[in-house]
Specification:
Chain B: InterPro entries: ABC_transp_permease, LivM-like. Chain A has about 260 residues and is an alpha/beta fold. Chain A has 11 helices and 10 strands. The longest helix of chain A has 20 residues. The longest helix of chain B has 27 residues. The chains are: A alpha/beta (about 260), B mainly alpha (about 350).
Chain lengths: ~260, ~350
Amino acid sequence: MTTTAVATPVVQFVDVQKAFGGNKVLVDVSLDVRPGFTGLIGPNGAGKTTCLNVVSGYLQPDAGDVRLAGQSVLGRAPMEVARMGVSRTFQTPRLIPNLSAVENVMVGGSRHYRHGHLAELLGLPSARRDERVQRERAYALLEELGLDHPDRAANAFPVGSQKIIEVARALLNDPVLLLLDEPAAGLGAEDVDRLVNGLNAWTARNPEAAVMIIEHDLELISRLCPTAAVLHFGRIITSGAPKDVLRDPVVVEAYLGADVAAGD
Amino acid sequence: MSETAQQVAAAKAVPPGDGPSGLAGAGIAANTVPGRTTGGSSTRTGIIAIIVLLALFAVPFVANTYVVFVVSLTLVYAVSTLGFNLLVGWSGQIGLAHAALFAVGAYGSAIGVEYGIPFLLTIPLAGIVAAVLALVIGFPAIRLRGFFLAIATLALGMAIVELLTMARPLTGGGGGMSVNVWSLPGITTAASTYFVVLAVAAIMFFLMRRALLGRFGRTLQAVRDLGQLTGSLGVSALRYRLVAFALSGFIAAVAGTLYGQLQTFIFPAMFQMNLLVPMLVMVFVGGAGSMWGPVVGAAFAIVLIEFFQDLGDQQAIAYGLVLMLAISVLPGGLTSLARRVGDSRFMARLRRREVAE
């Protein structure tokens, strides 16, 4: 873990501000995300998903900067940011319902196709090989994440498995930065174990990549993330090792206190 | 039969008590994409394709001129619907300029031949002209959705037909123009046209099948189902929508060139609502977004056209009713029927098994 501690940040949030109308969602977010897992936690409405939307190009911040490997992502469309190596999943899984799981994963491989559609239309051997390689990689990723029956249509899977498929789709592009928005919500304990094992195996192979996880399942955060940042009313109130962060009285009041009060 | 067996196997593989109940389990099995990745299935498709092609090739030798004409027309509509289905079914855009682009093909080819271009060459040329026109239409249209897209493209399509009417020196205006029919030496004109139509249809279906079952088709469906979210996959939704417009326009015009050869006389009124609505019927009755729906839809429409021939101006109303019926009763089209039947039998079996437990 010492190597990751000194590694240069993959993504940097620099004084990021974002308001919707009069509602300041991100008041002032500064955060360095280094290779490996980083948890982003905080109560509902704290601005966690807004942070992901700002990095992935879906929202432009009002002020501040977001840098990916030192390069600003501001002003770039989601497609360009994705081509820079940012992959993400969504809170509610978004798949092509009548395509098989493996073909849904293959849709995520845009960075790996070197051939135009014309080469595919003509059935050129190199284009066929590209397709075959991506298919095999998609199968391998799904297997690593513990998904059975990869040839089944996506809409036939329960939501938990659909989220796993979405994670595999995000991984197929070999991201530099992987953004996971509540990957464990709706997953059974067994599925969570598979997800954790799959993600650990993937990061072991891609030590340079950073994974940012938004999650309410704090146990998952503790298992995966050496560091967690707590977002509260649009500010990072603290960050550090999950077990320390979760004991921080400020966090307990802001985050857990709210949950306890809600009778959770 | 083997598909059913596959589904049974898939259902048995669902561990009991894993998440949702048996009902969802049935859904899983029913939605299995059968044999997409197995080599055996693609070999089988190839063999079926060759048998069908041979059978179609034999038609002019065994059938009379009328049958040859009807099969030709069916194939022309099937090609046209292949393009329309690409736009409407696969890319999810209700663009309604298809009949007009079909007209561009018919007129473009007829005019080209009059200016001395060989007919076979006018097929791709007219296609390219229509593709460029479709790009012009598509450029604003890809930013619109649903109803607005439909209205905008409908208006642009009507403008194209109107322009064809106004270009009297070239097109003969509202009175129409006759088409020089190209013919292979040594066989009848009807048989010759038939073979050209068959060859073009075979090439179009072969290429489109390859494109739609590969990355292009997958990405189009992603654009249709995920919209702007495809950006996060590194895919430009707008670009794919535009390509769908151009390609669908190209195919429409290719079909149009053949239509002109079959009809031998073309006039603007042929390419208005009385053609557009049956074209929509072909897409939706066959099954929007399906691979072989265009063939089924075209065959269905040919029968319908025969039935409705005597209705005169009321034809469009009749087609409209059929269209509404098709969409409301069978949203997946006729090609989804077989799967649906399989499902229901399967659901029943599964329910029985649950009762037994």
